[in-house]
Amino acid sequence: MKSAFTSTVLVALLATSTTALPSLQTSTKCPVVLDGRIPKTSPPSTFDTTSSPFNPKYVKSQNLTWAQIIKYPHVEPSKFDKSKNSIPFEVTISDASLFVAGGKLQPGFRRAGLLLGNGSDASNEGVRTFHWSIRQDPRRSMNLTHEYMNVWHEAGDYSSNQWSLNAGAMLAQDKPIDTNVSTVGLDKRLWKVLDRRNNVIWTTRIERDTWQNFGIVMDIPANTLQVLYSEDYEPLRPVTKPIHSDNSGGGQYQIGILKKPTETETVVFDGFQENNIDEGQIYGGIFIEDSSKGCTSR
Ligand SMILES: *[C@@H]1O[C@H](CO)[C@@H](O)[C@H](O)[C@H]1NC(C)=O
Ligand SMILES: *[C@@H]1O[C@H](CO)[C@@H](O)[C@H](O)[C@H]1NC(C)=O
Ligand SMILES: *[C@@H]1O[C@H](CO)[C@@H](O)[C@H](O)[C@H]1NC(C)=O
Ligand SMILES: *[C@@H]1O[C@H](CO)[C@@H](O)[C@H](O)[C@H]1NC(C)=O
Asked: Which domains does the chain show, CATH number per domain?
């Protein structure tokens, strides 16, 4: 929960593995390991209780409740909510979205994010597919002059992320660890999927008025990641091969908004954030499934 500087740049390292694509099964119901889909009958205050599938304490300002942070937008349920009769929800940030980690305020960020899993559970074994659908609220847009992390898997020691979904203008601090590729030129309007070394392994446009459905197949022992994607109610399809990436260290699935500052050195403790922030991201269909037997919901 400390932070996670993740991100950037463009070294499409496709095809570093010879592993075959997983077979995507339309008919099979794959075993669900952790389920973040919210029943229709749960008010936003459920997120403040242990009835929530997410950690009720983290990651948010100590001065805000989830009932204040979570909204239920009027949009069609996402594809993996329909089958479960569950509902989409929106995670919002404001000027008050300040997080204190280990007694230290993180004034560089405005953030609110839900945690699924505790870092040492069955989502950290074998082959797992992390599912989410994301959608924009036209009344609460991101300001893409900033870099955002919206969905990620943060390593157990909080020093890195095995993968993340980022948006906006990437900070120079988040350039890939093992290359000299610059972040300049990577379009701020793109979603960017990053691996653990901040290489950008896949991008797609941030759509304005439709569900964007993602899956990350994380083969933990084989140290590979594979990205699946679709829009609306289309089936997910693989958009990368399994890419070699260090999956070690366990960790947690995080879903929300982490808005990074501009004009910053440390990213976490300094930099510029504008006032009167009112931004949100709509999520649905959040679950982690067991893909060990080649089963992936599409
Ligand atoms: C929470 O509120 C208290 C009292 O107003 C304030 O001193 C503190 O800085 C706030 N903390 C955060 C993280 O905003
Ligand atoms: C994490 O969750 C798993 C499964 O619910 C549980 O067995 C384990 O004890 C938990 N670990 C911690 C550190 O809370
Ligand atoms: C990156 O830049 C440094 C300093 O210019 C250089 O020594 C190094 O060889 C470069 N690495 C790569 C992978 O190009
Ligand atoms: C976007 O963010 C930049 C940097 O914080 C700020 O200068 C600008 O006013 C913001 N734009 C909008 C439309 O809010």
From this structure: 32-173+187-291 (2.60.120.1160)
